[in-house]
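Researcher: Structure prediction, please.
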Amino acid sequence: MDITKNSVKPTLGKCDKCIENKTFSEINIGDSATLQKTLAFEDVNLFALASGDMNPTHTDIDFAETSQRKLTGHAMWSGALFSNLLGTQLPGPGTVYRGQMLKFHRPVALGESIQATVTVIEKQDSDFVISLDCRCTNADDEKDVICTGTAEVFAPTEKVQRERVTLPHLKLNDRGSQLQRLVAMTKDYAPIPMAIVHPVDRNSFMGAIEAARSNLIVPILFGPLDKMRAVAEQENINIDDYRVVDTEHSHEAAEKAVAMARAGEVEAIMKGSLHTDELMGAAVRRATGIASARRMSHVFLMDVPAYPRPIMVTDAAINIDPTLEEKRDIVQNAIDMAHALGNQQPRVALLSAVETINPKMRSTLEAAAICKMADRGQITGGLVDGPLAFDNAVSEEAARIKGIQSPVAGLADILVAPDMESGNMVAKQLEYMADALSSGIVLGARVPIALTSRADSVLSRMASCALALLLAHNKQKKIP
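Model: Predicted structure follows.
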């Protein structure tokens, strides 16, 4: 009995959402199937998670750089593309692997597009086995071979057409990785002296200690000695290892820390367990504070797992309803911070509810004015555009659908809120609904002020210290 002939059924109806196989009898020598794929960082991480292969050649950017290599994908990632072709195209659904032989000629670099092809080279009628040549090359140069080999499969003998299964959309939640990378950027810099104001709870105290251990800062602790000592004892820390300025209360701690910054004895300040108004009140005091010619503003650096790069939100903590002139300083402060982080041309999105100018909406008019200020050189160092609604600022797809032509739309590095209320809402929503971590800093003063929340994690506080260190180093570079 000829099974292959009896098993062939009429061609099934066309189905755009289906996958359909080719049975053993339908396959001819020379038939082939091809796909293209670009290796993304997420692919590398997913493959590492599935296989357990955490080789730093594939997963550790710093290792790849120090070993003079680019970050590369796992060799079997390209091998898995052949499995894709065999299981979905040729022969397709119902195929069972029998064996695979591969030779890898070179690794696949992150961001490289490759082409995988399988071609039928032999059929065995006795057991319905098909042999296929497997070849993977650079998508732009077929002579640049990545891997070659052969595969053997048991081909299906019955026609199969199935609706394509919709796989879940996976997002790797590498929470905190961007903040950790920020801390790693400071490894070649000497620590700076930093005033820690009123660190009388665990988070603020240990944030300073961990930053000191990581060689980010030399902390000077301002606050009631008995309260700080109590926290230190709970954490098995010898507080005598650090310089302490004993004060009666948090107001005095803020005043003495600001005075030391004014005198140039510390290069940054970090808020501990006290209200923001106490510290900023001392900082902005005309005769004794640390104000400069530029308006002070606050920037949240957000590590959002679903966003491919760190993103800044400003101003969400200081300027309640900034004027146009104050917004100019807010924008320039954020751009300067981006420069300190190595981004020499940050994309700045001026947020509003819409992306068109509406005379009844002040935020759209001010966004247009700020863009013209940037055109005239009153704001420098970044690409500025607005008004942009939030979706158009962070989503290239949303910007494309709305037909927005802009170098900033969908790619924003900096989100400038129209006022403190909306800025604070954006930052807090990202934190509590998008699982973001943040570090915050005040710019425009004589020294950066890490304006952390009492609920911030130790990592967030360390990242704020790293920001202060990078800003201080950048400031020193600008001094002739």
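Model: The chain has two domains: 3-163, 177-478.
Researcher: Thanks, that helps.
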